[in-house]
Amino acid sequence: MDRKKIRFGIQAASTLIQNANFKGFFTGKIYEGASKSVCVPGLNCYSCPGAVGSCPIGSLQSFLSGIKFKFPYYVLGLLIFFGAVAGRAICGFLCPFGFLQDLIYKIPFYKKNKFKIDRFLRYLKYVVLLLLVIILPMTFNLTPFFCKYVCPEGTIAGLMLSAADSNVRSALGPLFNWKFILLMIFIITGLIVRRPFCKYVCPLGAIYGFFNKIAIYRMSHDPNKCIHCGACAKVCHMNVDPSKTPNSMECIRCGDCVDVCPKNALYLGVKKERKVPKKSETV
Amino acid sequence: MKRYLPAILLMVCAAALIGVGIYLRQPESVLHKAVRICMECIGLG
User: Which CATH class is domain A218-283?
Assistant: First the structure.
């Protein structure tokens, strides 16, 4: 089985496992079991009727925005643990919203992944992380700014809950309309650009990106095998050149570059240490 | 082993943070927040 199919299978299984409370989709009631004390690695709103775990970004904000400030040891520990193991492979394999965006991108439409402001827009997710997830919730108590004003996962949860519960449906107002417009922007943009939310907005991806260079699951590039054909950079939808920066903070470990490399110069996974002499040393 | 040393050290630190969090009963706070519908999250706040 090829890598794409395996990744698709893992993404689908991960989405189903993280939303295994299927009954909730029909009753409109959220899961209340003990597993919700554990944060899932990807972005999955805990108010989604199917969710059996907690969203790490929502949990982080609830600690930071509490009336009495509590340092989020537990959530931070889980985030560091997930990051050290897999880095942004979590975005590529385990995140339900990433999976949804991959499905949307499969719809035949005009596609464009490389454009001028892309480089600058990438920094937006760090601003979102600092401002909406950390600074503003710490400044204004009881307001999870990212969840309240941006998170499209919460909007999807709201749509599902309102479909099953007339009370929720009748309470929808301007805030929901704003979030729904944002969700539509992400979906429509997602038809053209691959994973726009992950690239430009997701604070969770911003956090995991810091771990890409040191994570257990990471990419290796063999300069002795590389013929600099550029095939890897050309196929990358996250606009990374794996031959130059195999562990870029933007790489979500989809493995498309590994598949197209004609010389097997790229390797993705856990690798035994082996000293590779540089080309200049071998001449 | 040397290649993965930073990741292993981070995992140890993460385990320590999780341990402190559990000692401070933070998973209960996460559960408390997650078992009620978050009005802000779904756009009703």
Answer: alpha beta
